[in-house]
Amino acid sequence: MWVSDAKKTNDRQELEWFKNLAFRHLEAQSKNDADLKDVFDKLDFHFEAIQGISDYFICCFSEDRDSVPQWAAYAEKGAGFAIGFDVNALRMAVGAPLFDSTYSVSLGEQGSGEWSFASVFYGDPNTEDDKIKHLRMLIDIEPLFTDKDASTVAWEYIDRVCAFCKHPDFWTEREWRIVHNATLARQNGRMNENAPEKRWRRGAYGLTPYCETLDIRHCIREVVIGPANVDREAREYVSQFLESVGVNAEVDISKSPYR
Questions:
Q1: HSE toward the beta carbon, residue 220, CA cutoff 13 A
Q2: Measured distance CA(112)–CA(92) in Å, rounded
Q3: Would the N or C end of the chain have less CB density within 10 A of its end CB?
Q4: pLDDT score at 42
Q5: Mapping DSSP to helix (H, G, I), strand (E, B) and coil, where does residue 246 land?
Q6: Measured between alpha carbons, how far is residue 23 from residues 46, 52, 139, 150, 154 in Å?
Q7: Which pTM value belongs to this model?
């Protein structure tokens, strides 16, 4: 499975959307709060001069197995295929712990700090949602129990959530992501011999870096044949193909009216 540079998606504001939302709220709240104003100024400097948003590589999934928008946008206008995974088997194969609703590692989860798995949320610029409220809580509380200052705490949280936040126009995708933090992998350097190698491909938006995960064929549970596939033998051929490459999965045909 390929995880590709998140800056090469079809969303022009990829990785920046949550940062913009967070900055908008923090700036507004800091007008009457001198301590928060100091944190906000340091945070702005951190992003501009010390370290911006990490280099994230992502692989995207949808909760919907048979969706017209997904067929139209990502599957050769309905002539492609939808691959259904055993989610837990997939993320464990990659080493991606599950994030909770605050985008922190869920209790009892284990895995590499360089990988993560969670649903995408679609940030509304007119709403102070739970993620912004959680950010404010971290700014107020976490420095009391760690050696990190409030701006560092804020940067770490904003940076992490940026990999999972999109513009609300994309909400119909009902997206989940496996995310690889390539910046953290570089920082870990020789300590991590299993870090994936960066490769390059031609993408829709120019030369695109990507990494390959370990073999995940054992995680595939279903293949749905797209509604615009006119080959009457497609079901039999897909079954034969999957068997030839060692994949034990059900094969179904889309019920979508899309064509």
A1: 20
A2: 10
A3: C
A4: 96
A5: coil
A6: 13, 14, 13, 14, 10
A7: 0.93
Residue percentage of the chain with pLDDT more than 70: 97
From residue 24, give the alpha-carbon distance in Å to each of 28, 35, 49, 196, 254: 6, 17, 19, 36, 43
Q: Are 139 and 43 in contact (CB under 8 A)?
A: no
**Phi, psi of 249, deg, nearest 5:** -145, 150
**Whole-number Å distance between alpha carbons of 116 and 88:** 12
Give the residue carrying structure tokens 């009892």.
108
Give the pLDDT confidence of 29-54 residue by residue, as tens digits.
999 999 999 999 999 999 999 999 99
What's the gap between Cα 56 and its chain centre? 8
**DSSP label of 239:** H
8 and 200 Cβ atoms separated by less than 8 Å? no
DSSP 8-state assignment for residue 50? I
Q: Answer whether 71's CB lies under 8 Å from 229's CB.
A: no
**What is the structure's pLDDT at 233?**
85
